[in-house]
Design brief:
This protein is an alpha+beta fold and 291 residues long. Helices cover 21% and strands 34% of the residues. It has six helices and 16 strands. It has helices at 22-33, 84-96, 150-156, 181-191, 246-258, 285-288, and strands spanning 11-19, 36-41, 44-49, 53-60, 73-81, 102-105, 109-115, 121-127, 170-177, 195-200, 204-208, 216-219, 235-242, 264-265, 269-273, 279-283. An eight-stranded mixed β-sheet has the order 2-3-4-1-13-16-15-14. Strands 6-7-8-5-9-12-11-10 form an eight-stranded mixed β-sheet. A hairpin with a 3-residue loop joins β3 and β4. α2 crosses α3 (150-156). The chain starts with 10 loop residues before the first strand and ends with a helix.
Length: 291
């Protein structure tokens, strides 16, 4: 198995979600999350941030509801804000709309957690400066789940009326329920080349490119062997990995094919399945930037 590292400038792009009610979801993502509607078509929408950076694709057609921690797939996708002032603005929006939320100080970041109308998990967070992160002798970053200083976030955003997430907001990471943590490590670390940055016992693993605290979280909290949800259920259709250039893009696809993974290649993108059956889209930055 090729243990070559993924390019350090590899990033994550948009996620596509299967949802029940497009109008309801658009309103939620605009008014509560603070994203901008970038494109609307029959049964679908793209939302993101100025000046036209897509982060979330919505695809209407799901039925029913998705029980939490029952299937492999999305635990949450995480929108990274430029600073904690903007995180304070996000907190104010949640309070204004009376949205239940979770919260955590992860040492490397401060985070708020919500669910969209279909139960898709969303983290909204801001990083602390990298020079404040600490690493142990195994090269793993120190993360925790401490109480968040909500009052401090509100103080930081006093007088701020930000109703939209600003330019510079990105897809920070995606956290997945997987069916087998060992197989997932072999795939994301051993084949794709993401570096292991943290482990939470036998149930969770975090990996990244370029020494970030994590681009992907992988956990078995839905149970070892958790199946994919039904095809028509709400949830994640795919998430996007964005290598920085053509060589890095080609290297990733080549490693997948050499490892025996089926790669579905198209003109400007490619798709593959991880060991849990979760679909991944690979795109170059110029293709991912197109709304």
């Amino acid at each position: 198995m090729n243990q070559a590292a993924i390019h350090p400038q590899t990033a994550l792009g948009r996620v596509r979600l299967n949802i029940v009610d497009l109008e309801k979801s658009i309103a939620f993502y605009r008014e509560v999350v603070g994203l901008t509607l970038l494109k609307r078509s029959e049964g679908a929408a793209v939302l993101g941030v100025p000046p036209g950076v897509p982060l979330v694709e919505l695809e209407e057609g799901a039925t029913g509801s998705l029980p939490r921690r029952a299937y492999a797939g999305l635990y949450h996708f995480a929108i990274l804000l430029p600073d904690r002032v903007r995180l304070g603005e996000a907190l104010r929006r949640l309070i204004e709309h009376d949205i239940p939320f979770g919260q955590a100080d992860h040492l490397v970041s401060e985070a708020l957690y919500i669910h969209d109308p279909d139960g898709n998990g969303i983290e909204i967070y801001a990083d602390r400066p990298r020079d404040q992160w600490t690493w142990n002798e195994r090269g793993e970053v120190a993360m925790s789940t401490d109480p968040l200083d909500l009052e401090g976030l509100l103080r930081a955003s006093v007088g701020r009326k930000g109703q939209q997430m600003p330019e510079g907001t990105t897809m920070g990471h995606v956290h997945l329920h997987v069916s087998d943590l060992g197989a997932s490590r072999s795939f994301y670390h051993g084949i794709l080349g993401f570096g292991v940055t943290a482990r939470y016992g036998p149930q969770a693993l975090f990996v990244s490119a370029g020494g970030y605290h994590h681009h992907l979280g992988l956990n078995t909290w839905a149970g070892a062997g958790a199946p994919l949800p039904p095809e028509n259920a709400p949830g994640l259709r795919f998430f996007t990995v964005v290598p920085p250039d053509a060589q890095a893009y080609g290297d990733v696809l080549r490693r997948l094919e050499e490892a025996g993974c089926r790669v579905e290649r198209h003109a400007e993108e490619a798709f593959a399945l991880d060991p849990s059956g979760i679909r991944i889209r690979f795109r170059l930055p110029e293709a991912e930037a197109v709304v």
